[in-house]
Amino acid sequence: MSEVVNCAAYADGVRVATMPVEAISDALQGDGQFVWVGVHEPDEALLRTMQQEFGLHDLAVEDALRAHQRPKLEEYGDSLFVVLRPARWEADHVELGETHLFVGPRYVLTIRHGETQSYAEVRGHCESTPRLLRKGPGYVLYAIMDFVVDQYFPLISELEERLTGLEEQIFSGEADSDVIEAIYGLKRDLLMLKRAVSPLVDICNRLTRLDLPTIPDDTRPYFRDVYDHAIRINETIDTLRELVSGAFEAKLSLNAVAQSEVTKQLASWAAIIAVPTMIAGIYGMNFKFMPELEWQYGYFAAVAVMAGACGLLYWRFKRAGWL
Known about the structure:
The protein has helices spanning 24-27, 44-54, 58-66, 120-127, 130-133, 137-150, 152-172, 176-209, 220-283, 298-320; strands at residues 3-11, 14-18, 33-40, 72-76, 79-84, 87-90, 93-96, 98-104, 107-113. The protein is α+β, with helices and mostly antiparallel strands.
């Protein structure tokens, strides 16, 4: 359902007015103030209204309408279009949302897609620190990016715990299908996080280094903090992916070892059974002239030879560790 969550004007780091969408263009005329609008799941009509009020670029608006974008940073004149992929833990897997930010010299428009966490906490934190909010839309962009990146840390901890549990299951010999399914689920979650976090490194790097008119010089150092967090999370994800791959290979190796042991046992018993089968087969051919057929102790001798051969083979296989 399309919804305007909040629409307010700020001056000198303080909220000075809460307004309807139609009054945004008028508020932008005020000296020394900027407008911050938050929208959830906008329909085309609402987004087109926002485009008229803020003068948004057509290509950026088309991306915001379609959603399902990868994290990116695009420049359109003196404004920025930023796509973020906030994540949350849903039941037993990672669920990604999507946030689009239009940032200009005098406005910030945040558009949330999906069941992502509200940015009311970010707005409250910014409003409680007028000294920082006074820096304008550039600081609001930092605050939102920092909030999104910080949400990744609990997910990483959860995935690390899942990996630890999987390693215990692998070496405890639990059902192969359950463990392999869990491994692939973990790999899928890590891949989703990788796609959400990896582009943030480049985005933060550009915000820190490039000369963007929307980002004042005194705001650039804040993006280094987000950059450091993104690098840390990205490296942790890479490490976890390697460990998951190692766990999968360990599971396959254990399965191969178990199958090898079963094969050895089957081969050993097949060899033991083959000896009496061969002897019984020879004396069961019913030829008239065969040695020992008329011997009084032939039956006992044949049984003794079978038992002795089987016992010898059993001892040899047991000694070799096949049984």
